[in-house]
Amino acid sequence: MTEVKSGSSKNKWIALIAMSLGVFMALLDVTVVNVALPTMAVDFNTTFSNLQWVLNAYTIVFASILLIVSKLGDMYGRKKIFMISMVIFVVASAINGLATSLPVLIAGRALQAIGGAGLNSLSMALVASNFEGKSRGTGMGILGSVIGLSTASGPLVGGYLVETFGWPSIFFVNVPIGIIAFALSWKYVKETPSYGKGQKIDFLGMLLSGAGLFTLVYGLIEKEQHFNWGWTDPRVMGWLLAGVVLLVVFVLVELKSKHPMMNLKLFKHVNLVGATFVAFALGAGVYAINAYLTTMMQNYMGYSAFSTGVHQLVMSIWALLLGPITGRLGNRYSKRWMIAGFLGLGVVAYLVLALMITPNITFNELVPGLVLLGISNAMVNPLVNNAGLEGIEPSETGMASGIMNVFRQFGVTVGIVMLGLTQSNKYEDYVNGHWSGLNLPVQMSDGLHDAFTNAGPFAGHTIAYNSRLASLPQIGQLRDMILHAYNHSMVAIFIAAAIVMAIGAVAAGLLMRDSKEN
């Protein structure tokens, strides 16, 4: 494996390009598939419910494998595992693009997630080891901006590729990018020492951590797909309890292991603990809401997938513009209070969105809130990655970054479920409370009511504007009521997200410390 001496300033920036390409591909593929699902449904002649597993297979495996690949990188060299992950990701992408059946595509997505987890987690640790001093903050800032941009640009990239070249292109595009990133990584990324000498692989710890995270995420996804199931339903609670039990057993095993997969003493670092809270808040409060903003723009504002991505640039572009300067600011000012302050800006952003949204919302009315939210994410994400690794031994930066990434990804999953339940409950409450005022004919009232409540806020607009209902005398009132119900549900989502961001801000202020305070 080629190693590059740290003396070359030019080499480390080229290495950063390679690592940024890797993490961009990995995180983009978490969201880029969303816009391709309608086309896939036609090509595979299947239902949207079945296609959800194209998304879920990636999400579940991605979250489950993050800690494992982080540990392997710490033990055997992060560059080595990063490049192996890239090969897996590229090969899986090609399989996905060539898939002629849904089972093959789902299996390919699971394989792709293994590679994506390695690219995502190890890129942060590699930047930490390839950069020193003040340049490390700049490098982490740029990587953080790429992380934020990749997560937010899924609708734009996916919409363009699907509309222009068809859904396989969202996977095939990874092949040339991956080859370029592999070549740059081979030549310019500096390998880290192999810290695994004299250690044994903790297979039991890896099995327990992977199984615990798998079952937790699976239980949350089951709840997301079946909002009518209660939390105590065995089909939900059973998975969640199993996940908690497995993770408790994992902790007990790690405490007694001579060569644990995870050194639990890492959690003595207050910055890492604070960073996990902030990462979770970013996942649940920012990245999870992208799906709901996209739905609003497409289903209720009438934008195409590509146009939605273009309009969301007012939010996502800030990651690209501000990321490079966050590291410099973090070197001069308190990372702790900058993180808390810009999370607070995110709270303001959501309150602005909640105040501005109306049943006939225009894009111009969304712009102030989206801009503030984009700035909040662009500043916090790079800063928390850098702050979370402060004081961590070089041999364990991979695992530390893996922990932050697990909490960020877990936050996304929890956030999607939490926001979805909030939205559905508010939507149904409004529909139920105003349905009798429509004075619909008795013979159709119950059937239509069931249709709208079962469809929920995602599909309610589509049903209301279906041509088959156009002759209904009360159609104007019905459509107006559905728009108001959706409006109330989005206000509830924005307030819930603001609360999550506020908790993250408080956690950053209370739990984190500046380097001079450690």
Overview of the molecule:
This protein is mostly helical. It folds into three domains: 1-200, Growth Hormone, Chain: A; 203-258; 270-518, MFS general substrate transporter like domains (Growth Hormone, Chain: A, Up-down Bundle), CATH 1.20.1250.20. Helix content is 79%, strand content 0%. The chain contains 20 helices and no strands. It is globular, with a radius of gyration of 23 Å. The model is unreliable at 1-7 (pLDDT under 50).
What descriptors fit this protein?
518 residues, mainly alpha, Growth Hormone, Chain: A, 3 domains, 79% helix, disordered N terminus, transmembrane transporter activity
Which helices and strands, and how do they pair?
Layout: H1 9-31, H2 37-44, H3 48-76, H4 78-98, H5 102-130, H6 133-152, H7 154-165, H8 169-172, H9 174-188, H10 203-225, H11 234-256, H12 270-287, H13 290-300, H14 305-311, H15 313-332, H16 335-356, H17 363-388, H18 397-434, H19 442-464, H20 475-511
Helix pairs in contact: 1-5, 1-6, 1-9, 3-4, 3-5, 3-10, 3-18, 4-5, 4-9, 5-6, 5-18, 6-15, 6-17, 7-14, 10-11, 10-18, 12-17, 12-18, 12-20, 13-19, 15-17, 16-17, 16-20, 18-19, 18-20, 19-20
GO molecular function: transmembrane transporter activity
Domain Major facilitator superfamily (MFS) profile: 15-516
Protein name: Major facilitator superfamily permease
